[in-house]
Amino acid sequence: MAMSILYKTILVPVYLISYIFPRSGQIWLFGDNNQRFADNSKYLFLFVHNTKKNIKAVWISKDKHLVALLQSKGYSAEYKFSPKGLYLGLRAKVYIHHSLPSSINFWTSGGAFIVNLWHGVPLKKIGYDAKKHKIFSKDTKTYTFEKLLRRLTQWNSSRFDLLVVTSKKLIPQMKQAFRSTDSQILLSGYPRNQVFFQEFAGSISDREEVLRATLDESNMFNVLYAPTFRDSGQHPLNYSELDLQKLNDFLSSNRIMLWMKFHLLESKTGDRPDLSKYPNIQEVDPLSDIYPFLPKMKCLITDYSSIYIDYLLLNRPVVFFAYDLKQYMTDDRGMYYNYDEVAPGVIATNQDAMQKALYDVCIGKDEYVEERMVLRDRFHNNGVAEDACEIIFEKVMLQI
């Protein structure tokens, strides 16, 4: 921790110096904080690359393999700490990310116009509203100093000029979470959701081609299980009452293929069951982008993940497997809403209830169609999501 603080202290002058470099409005940088080619940044990058030839769109990453892969596909991409990557960091007028400016390079971002696309309609508390927000930690003197350093450099998520939201009703919530103003808020929808309605050239990578081919050829009832990340660190598969053999037998007898997509941080957890013995349970590569495949899923199983709010745009059944509901509400970040009021589906707190709810979906029993539509319109500006990229692009062009 001490070295990290020293490193950041040394870089503060670099950040200040970055303000004097002349910046070009024709250079836009994009990045992902987990070093993937995914999420909202990916889809706006593809939109700009494919349709706005007057803009040089460049993907910035610490992953050299990803950079080489994107370059081989004909995209502009640079390693974050390469001479060219640093130069572009100083020259680009526009930085676009969906989490933190450091997704690109915070230390070269002085004077840049920063767009935070964010990465999901928040159910659990985020930013300054989260119970365990690191900025407010008072555990050690080091954290007190880091808190000061972060504020001096605007290191946290509040460092942006534009924040995307998907609905008017979410504006007060996002303003509070990020301490932002009306002028920083843009109502547009998320770029990643456009893939539900139109083709995006380049949206499916080589690692995802196998998944696409499997789903295209499948005659199974395909279901996605996508749980959220827990601050407690517990992996969903380590739920003590989860019987994977029983689950696999149920899936097999009903011709269901269950695709499990875990949060990237949870996917790094080594101590969890081996899924290879369960043929009707398949894990999706954690680095894959699941969004092009959501329209191929007949049902979504989740818990507190906001992925279901995007899935509402397809108006398909959702089962909520909230086996640790009480613990989650107590130990994690807390939620903005009464869970029952924003969960348009069966809330199953054990495996038997989850399997029963999934069976009902398989036989066509769906009692939540209207409820999903009401929530879709609440969280997605009356269901409109198709033109998000163009709205964001035009707004940025007006403001730079």
Question: What is shown here, in short?
Answer:
By secondary structure, the chain is an alpha/beta fold. It is 35% helix and 14% strand. The chain has a seven-stranded parallel β-sheet, with helices on both faces. Strands 10-9-8-11-12-13 form a six-stranded parallel β-sheet.
Which spans of ≥5 residues are poorly predicted at pLDDT below 50? 135-141
Order of helices and strands: HEHEHEHEEHEHEHEHEHEEHEHEHHH
Number of structural domains? 2
On the 0 to 100 scale, the average pLDDT is 88
The CATH topology assignment of the largest domain is: Rossmann fold
Biggest beta sheet summary? 7 strands, parallel
Write the layout of secondary structure elements.
Blueprint (H helix, E strand, L loop, with lengths): L1 H16 L6 E7 L8 H13 L4 E6 L2 H9 L3 E4 L3 H9 E6 L15 E4 L24 H13 L8 E4 L5 H8 L6 E3 L18 H12 L3 E5 L18 H10 L2 E5 L3 H4 L13 E3 L15 E4 L4 H5 L6 E4 L3 H7 L15 E2 L2 H12 L6 H11 L8 H12 L1
Parallel strand pairs: 1-2, 1-4, 2-3, 4-5, 5-6, 6-7, 8-9, 8-11, 9-10, 11-12, 12-13
Overall description:
By secondary structure, the chain is of the alpha/beta class. It has two domains: 2-195 and 385-399, CDP-glycerol glycerophosphotransferase, N-terminal domain (Rossmann fold); 203-379, Rossmann fold. Helices cover 35% and strands 14% of the residues. The chain contains 14 helices and 13 strands. The protein is globular and about 65 Å long. The relative contact order is 0.13.
Distinctive features:
400 residues; alpha/beta; Rossmann fold; seven-stranded parallel beta sheet; six-stranded parallel beta sheet
